[in-house]
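Changelog-adjacent note: as of this version, every example in the card shows the full chain rather than a window. The one below runs 341 residues end to end.
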Amino acid sequence: MKVAVVGVTGLVGGVMCRALEERNFPLTEFLPVASERSIGKIVKFKGKEYPVIGMEDAIAQRPDIAIFSAGGDTSKTWAPRFAEAGTTVIDNSSAWRMDPDKKLIVPEINASQLTLEDKIIANPNCSTIQMVVALAPLHQAFGISRLVISTYQSFTGTGVKAVKQYQLERKGFRPKADEMAYHHPIFENCLPHCDIFLENDYTKEEMKLANETRKILNDDSLRITATAVRVPVHGGHSESVNVEFKKPFDIREVRRILQEADGLVVQDDLANNKYPMPLMAKDKDEVFVGRIRRDESIENGLNLWIVADNLRKGAATNAIQIAEFLVAHHLIKNEALSNQN
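Full-length structure tokens:
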């Protein structure tokens, strides 16, 4: 099993390598891939050093799986090239998420949709992934009518430049204009501005939450509104989610469903001040949910507080879980494995 990590020198690319190691993914050959300016740099993986290679070299080696985290433009250009060579691409950018011909996958919810013919598979946005892990089983049980979402998203989701801006500001330095990932300081600040503003005055991040959730849950009737906020937090993204259901619910049944859901950990012990926090979610693969309570202002309303490490489950881990599903269900056309069988 030959696996390429494309964008290996980036923030998420590095986390992907760690997650592949920690989850003991069954690869036999590792290909670190990045842009031309990074070719030759050394990447460590499982105790060995590997020189970074370029796109053409990687395609020529025909990896079985290529996990992309190199930005939408790069993915648009190169993912089809890998797919044409027989590689199954799992892409972490926004390039393919809303493409009607590409599947948008959160393994706990809809991995069963995948087939051998899916050569480019989209990994959802980080804030969407953690939310739908909690919402999907509730939607199945009670039918979601409307969602009101407020996010508190780590600056790490913006990438290396944002991390450097935060570090400089925390040390008391004022970053130069070309060192600013944001229009304003992020240290000791909150920015109601994730990604770019669109014509409807929502940000791209806010519309991702709406559009991707509808696609993953396969329900275009869902009414969704969101406000996405960037916060000076390292460990992950937090979300306050207000849910309006079509059917009445018992709060005990809600708790039972969440406790039994795959990939979800319920932390909701108010007597002992236990609830999800990004500080505790950091470096973990699960999604955490708490502050589970009825919304007393509307009929069939529920409030949830959902937290996850945006670089792990929100990006790297979800992509690797997709790869694990493909391998486990023989959805990779691997010549070496075929010869062994």
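Structural remarks: The chain has two domains: 2-95+316-340, 127-310.
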